[in-house]
Specification:
By secondary structure, this protein is of the alpha/beta class. It folds into 4 domains: 219 residues, Rossmann fold (3-Layer(aba) Sandwich), CATH 3.40.50; 86 residues, Translation factors (Elongation Factor Tu (Ef-tu), domain 3, Beta Barrel); 106 residues, Elongation Factor Tu (Ef-tu), domain 3; 179 residues, Rossmann fold (3-Layer(aba) Sandwich). It contains 16 helices and 27 strands. The strands form 5 sheets. The protein has a 6-stranded mixed sheet with strand order 2-3-1-4-5-6, sandwiched between helices. Helix 6 links the parallel strand 4 and strand 5. The relative contact order is 0.07.
Length: 638
């Protein structure tokens, strides 16, 4: 039977908890090149702050004999390398987070990978950190990854850096070597905006200058690493910034209560003060600040609260409540730094989901201004952005949102991009400024509406979007469909891929980025034609689902019909009326769909045409019947 703890023990435990709550918390990451000793350093910190339990240490000793790289000694790096692949290779792949504490402070440390292909993992760890410990092997000095990681750390708003010159024991504790590395770093990082850079010579393996000053470096008069981490002031004092709170949830448990829940991103708010809804400009006085433990007189950055207002205002999830005298910008276009984090490249013009705070909105990268070579910091022209690359871009949104520049507020100036089909996070972005160039452009009210245009023609506007491989028969079928509809007195227009490239899109090539822009333009033209009341027949390969979906979303409900001309590649290649497949096979025609560029088959088209089992006339009849509501979909009526 377990004994009941004495009241004295409980009191001591509660006192301990109270002391821990009063300590400040420092979030930091370790980064650097492969084998610079990041995991060993964190393992040493955990060991010397007595954060390793006896059973864990015993397991570590066994793992060291099996996977260790330090001979008979315990390999402290294995405390962080949790994946089997990491232990077998002796490298860090994933981001490992560890907590430890001292008498003065609490710490959460992120151990990030050093390999270039895991730059996105390193950026993830940096996004929530206040300080970076950048390790450099004293033998190798400043290397490419040092420059890469220092740049990304700066880009993500970290303003405090420790330059940890590790393995100083392997260069005989040389002061000259340490000074050389320190001076090189200060030279290339002078424009990165770091507020503090503390260079420390250390040996993570043997503990020199990790927690206590080492007698091996009498020429070094600075703090040990742990001493610096315990005392460095990294606070940006979010409480002094203007008030911002992104609404996460409209709390309506009954008819008598309506509150707006969220975590305060910055600033301080008090009951009775006036707040503004950033997007609408509506203002109201703050009636109550509600928490689980009761109402508060004031709340500050980091507090999770529910706010109630004196007036009934239309507020929903994603809206930003702000200081009435310091409102954030509200814009549908902004410039940003972007870190691409997915294997599939960024294609300007493709629609993604952008999430900023609690607000999600459709967005496109409207312009890839240039990508940054993060080894040399050169600006390079580019049409696409690949995994781990960084670029300066312009972003266009489907609707305005409230933002702050990332340099002013990391909470309301950061965003992520999400793939609309897989829901994978594909990029992290930092807003630099709003784009004001289109603020003088407004929708002009027009008296003759799209409904009036359609009524005059006696038809419902629609878009019949024919997609399939080159040579599948799309244009042939679409041409027959238009002739049949014309005979029936319908008002139509046919947009054909080849014809459009002789005019509107003659400036575009056949890269994936150009294909995306090709379809974006055609979708916008088709939308204008439906506004004129026309039935629009679009015949384009349109190889990517994302762009076909984008075109669908431009139209009204029931106005977009996807028609998949499902002709196998072998049949298309056998026809090869224009000789394009032969050129592609010979390597004379690059980026040819089906050969060296992908085609994404429609998952749920309204109509599938099999040209291997029916003639073009028969296929065209099926399309017309669909449009007229005579079969293959009785809901479609013209």
């Amino acid at each position: 039977m377990n004994s009941v703890p004495a009241s004295k023990d409980i009191a001591q435990f509660l006192d301990y908890i109270g002391e821990q709550e009063k300590k400040s918390l420092l979030r930091f990451l370790t980064c650097g090149s492969v084998d610079d000793g990041k995991s060993t350093l964190i393992g040493r910190l955990l060991f010397e702050t007595k954060m390793i339990f006896d059973d864990h240490f015993s397991a570590l000793e066994k793992d060291s004999r099996r996977h260790g790289t330090t001979g008979e000694e315990v390999d402290l790096a294995l405390l962080l390398d949790g994946l089997e692949a990491e232990r077998e290779q002796g490298i860090t792949i994933d981001v490992a987070y560890r907590f430890f504490t001292t008498d003065k402070r609490k710490f959460i440390v992120a151990d990030t990978p050093g390999h270039e292909q895991y730059t996105r993992n390193m950026a993830t760890g940096a996004s929530t950190s206040d300080l970076a410990v950048l390790l450099v092997d004293a033998r190798h000095g400043i290397v490419t990854q040092t420059r890469r990681h220092a740049f990304i750390v700066s880009l993500l708003g970290i303003r405090h850096v420790v330059l940890a010159v590790n393995k100083i024991d392997l260069v005989d504790f040389s002061q000259d070597r340490f000074n050389e590395i320190r001076n090189q770093f200060q030279s290339f990082a002078k424009d990165f905006g770091f507020r503090t850079v503390q260079a420390i010579p250390l040996s993570a393996r043997f503990g020199h200058n990790v927690s206590e000053p080492s007698p091996k470096t009498p020429w070094y008069n600075g703090p040990s690493l742990l001493q610096h981490l315990e005392t460095v002031d990294t606070s940006d004092d979010l409480t002094k910034l203007p008030f911002r709170m992104s609404v996460q949830w409209v709390n309506r448990p009954d008819l008598n209560f309506r509150g707006f829940s969220g975590t305060i991103a910055s600033g301080t708010i008090r009951a009775g003060e006036t707040v503004v809804v950033a997007k609408s400009g509506k203002t109201s006085k703050l009636a109550r600040i509600v928490t689980y433990d009761g109402d508060l007189a004031e709340a500050t950055a980091g507090d999770a609260v529910t706010l109630t207002l004196a007036d009934e205002i239309d507020i929903s999830r994603g809206d930003v409540l702000a200081s009435v005298d310091a409102r954030p910008e509200v814009t549908d276009q902004f410039a940003a730094n972007l870190v691409w984090m997915h294997e599939d490249a960024l294609l300007p013009g493709r629609a993604y989901l952008l999430k900023c705070g609690t607000k999600s909105v459709s967005a496109t990268v409207s312009e890839l201004k240039y990508k940054i070579d993060i080894n040399s910091f050169e600006h390079l022209a580019a049409k696409e952005l690949k995994l781990n690359e960084v670029a300066v871009v312009n972003v266009a949104l489907a609707e305005p949102i409230a933002i702050d520049p990332y340099a002013e507020n990391r909470e309301t100036g950061a965003f992520i991009l999400i793939d609309r089909f897989s829901n994978a996070t594909v990029a992290a972005g930092m807003i630099t400024h709003s784009l004001r160039r289109a603020t003088n452009v407004h929708w002009q009210a027009i008296d003759i509406t799209r409904e009036a245009h359609a009524s005059l023609k006696g038809q419902h506007p629609k878009v019949a979007w024919f997609t399939g491989l080159s040579g599948s028969g799309k244009s042939t079928i679409a041409n027959i469909v238009e002739k049949k509809l014309h005979t029936l007195g319908r008002h139509t227009f046919l947009l054909d891929g080849d014809n459009i490239r002789h005019g509107l899109n003659k400036d575009l090539g056949f890269t994936d980025a150009d294909r995306v822009e090709n379809i974006r333009r055609v979708g916008e033209v088709a939308k204008l034609m439906t506004d004129a009341g026309l039935i629009v027949l679009v015949s384009f390969i349109s190889p990517f689902r994302a762009e076909r979906q984008m075109a669908r979303e431009l139209m009204g409900p029931g106005e977009f019909i996807e028609i998949f001309v499902d002709t196998p590649l072998a049949h298309c290649e056998a026809r090869d009326v224009k000789g394009l497949y032969a050129k592609a096979r010979a390597g004379k025609l690059k980026h040819f769909t089906g050969i060296d560029s992908p085609y994404e088959v429609p998952e749920a088209p309204e109509l599938r045409l099999d040209t291997t089992t029916e003639t073009s006339e028969e296929s065209a009849d099926r399309v017309v019947r669909l449009l007229l509501g005579l079969g293959d979909g009785e809901d479609w009526v013209i």
